[in-house]
Amino acid sequence: MYDVVLLTLGSERDAPGGCGSGGACCGGATGADTAPTSQSDTGQASAGRASSSQTDTGQADTEQCATERPRVPVLACADALNARGARVETVTARSDAEIDAVLARLDGPARPDGLTWPDPDSKTRLVVATASDGQLRAVLRRLVKRYAPAPSKRPADLPGDRTLPDLPPVAVLPLDPARGGTHRDLVAQLGLPRDPAAVAAAVLDGTPRRLDLLRNDGGSVTLDGALLGAADDAGRPLHWRARVEVDDTILTDGAEPLLACAVGNAGGYATLNDVTLLTAPDPADGQVEVAVAVPVVVRSAWGRKRVRLEVRRARGRAVSVLPREGRVPYLDDGVEGELTRKRSWWIEPGAWAVWSI
């Protein structure tokens, strides 16, 4: 039978600015997290430096991060697992170090090359209890930091289109009911169970469903997507400029104003108000879909000017965004930040996985 760890980071309601939110504690990137790899050496595959998942200069707030006792869904999931004979442990992590201590249980045997590698035959299974996609991302960020080898130590058994091995599957236990509105969390998009008993069944009886992961040169990861842009207090979109490039396709060179840019692994940012930005984001197709919304001034037959919104799209393996002026606000897996320097994302096909039935 399996050992199951129920890992809780604490929710925003328990700690404003807590794990995975703007404060980004419990897995939030700090100054030490700005390197893309974990096993020493410098980053790989993308140019430039930019912000962490919080801001490009932000430091993680590690105080008052977690709840003092498990939430009801965690207790219900533990009961369902215990009823099936699993050995269950609930852990509340208040720092990256405490997350890392849990993830160490997923390590495989020592390798001749000295790399820390996940155990594909591990009898320990991990359930991440989350109140937001940002909290799930915090755990995945630590998994990447633990297992991604430095470029100079790249092993021969690593797939040619990847910078890290297959990460251990995780189960996702939502701590809150599905929210209404147009934005759906990752659990809803992937069709994963929300009921604690169903999550327990997926952990014990399910199979890994492998999904693409976006890494970036700020040392973080993206599971769903990112939306760049902002609005004023009246809700009017603000113009900004940036060079946006997908593989060899230039969507904009930075000379024209933009209203928004969506970087999509999944579909959380596929639409903005009534505008369709991304047409077919798929978290398992090995590509990232990118769209920019550009206001274009046109003249009618009577010579009158009007503004129409032009959406340009491209798909590929990597995307870079280079702001031309000031700070560009963004949401990345629901976490707020500001971009002041070039940021590059690249796809890691099938790098992470969820337990599903």
Topology of this structure?
Elements: E1 3-8, H1 72-83, E2 87-92, H2 96-103, E3 124-130, H3 133-147, E4 170-174, H4 186-190, H5 196-205, E5 207-216, E6 221-222, E7 225-228, E8 242-246, E9 249-253, E10 260-264, E11 271-272, E12 275-276, E13 288-299, E14 305-316, E15 318-323, E16 328-332, E17 335-339, E18 343-356
Parallel strand pairs: 1-2, 1-3, 3-4
Antiparallel strand pairs: 5-6, 5-18, 7-10, 7-16, 8-9, 8-15, 10-13, 11-12, 13-14, 15-18, 16-17
Helix pairs in contact: 1-5, 2-3
Which characteristics define this entry?
6-stranded antiparallel beta sheet; 18 strands; 357 residues; alpha+beta
Walk me through this protein's architecture.
With 357 residues, the protein is an alpha+beta fold. It has helices spanning 72-83, 96-103, 133-147, 186-190, 196-205; strands spanning 3-8, 87-92, 124-130, 170-174, 207-216, 221-222, 225-228, 242-246, 249-253, 260-264, 271-272, 275-276, 288-299, 305-316, 318-323, 328-332, 335-339, 343-356. The strands form 4 sheets. A 6-stranded antiparallel sheet has the order 6-5-18-15-8-9. Helix 1 (72-83) packs across helix 5 (196-205) and helix 2 (96-103) crosses helix 3.
